[in-house]
Amino acid sequence: MVETDDLLLIDGAAGIVIVNPSAATVAEFRDEQRRQVAVNSQLHAMRDLPARTLCEHDIQLYANIDNPDELDDALEYGAMGVGLFRTEFLFMGHDELPDEQRHYENAIAVLDKLKGRPATIRTFDLGADKLAPFLDAADLEEANPALGLRSIRLCLAELGRPLFHTQLRGLLRASAHGPLKLMFPMISGVAELRATKAVVDEVKAELAAEGIPFDDRVKLGIMIEMPSAALTADLLAQECDFFSIGTNDLIQYTMAVDRVNEYVSYLYEPLHPSLLRLIGTVAAAAKAANIPVTICGEMAGEPMIAPVLVGLGLPPLILNGALMGGLLGLRRIGTLSLAYVAIGTSRVLAALAASALGLGLTGALAVVTLASYVMAGTLWWLCRAEAHLEWSAPRGDRNTVFRTLYRASSAIGVLMALTTVDVVLA
After folding, report:
1. Quick one: which of 317, 286, 325 has its CA closest to 299?
2. What whole-number distance in Å separates Cα of residue 419 and Cα of residue 206?
3. Which end of the chain is less enclosed by CB atoms within 10 A, N or C?
């Protein structure tokens, strides 16, 4: 029970809150705090180094922002531009709807700060858990809002189309002032994308008739957030200029799991073979059509997962400023070399398993992958046990044990992921 004037110590990384910690515990966390500051300082010093692995593979880091004020931190961490500007927050928490001028000025504020670097602005992604006053007033009473009138569906519907039209006018006007790209959320297929492009063409025709300048060749891209879009990526690639894979929703819709639901959140698995296969499919379709593809979401900011994404052919990562700092240290690793070594090792292990168990190579690879999942999962839960169990050992000793287990879990996790990539893409 927390009472007034209690001292709270919060470990956000581990999800732990300690009430009235001892002096020794406070001292230990102070040491950890100083260590993190030193590490961040070292990472910050690397921000101007080429974002290139030792095997000469370039990696681009772009910012994920909600408003122009967040861009300063992202640029401080070395962002090469804005990969995702989420505009729905102009609608949320405000009684007045943003007008055309507000959209224009908001985009101009981003372009001015970027000084010639590119900005990708996503049209509003409202609905489900992202509510605005006009949606509350509409009282839709949807039984399942996550699968209802949201995102681009709302933009194309009678309720949201006037707002979409207004936003497009403001953003297209801003496109005359710098390298701006437009991106549309939650596109499910070709028909929906064509309907969206038709609205863009209508707005372009209006602006041209009014003599208002805009970039007539502004790039149009889409978020790949549903299995239907991932599985038809080859068709969608013929209709747009770039892809951005939104992993948060893609995982949710692929695994049919609500990531904030404590009862099923354990199923929210970024390295599930089905997800890696979908990501690989999208990357291959983009490469075949010669269009860029980026990836965003929490998955892109995980230092132990980023090498897997690079190995899948997704060098541009979109992150918020805090996560970007954690990936700076990965810039100089030989990611692809590591991938080849890990996959080669998995094939050797698989060959031995095939010989011993009489399995084919594919079956043996599946066995190795499953075993890796079990080992990594076991170690991970041991690492997390501190958040749920009371241990008699001193905290310092426990930290040493958990840190060792965590590193082992991470190493096995990477091998597991790369082995899985080998299985699903072979």
Report:
1. 317
2. 53
3. N
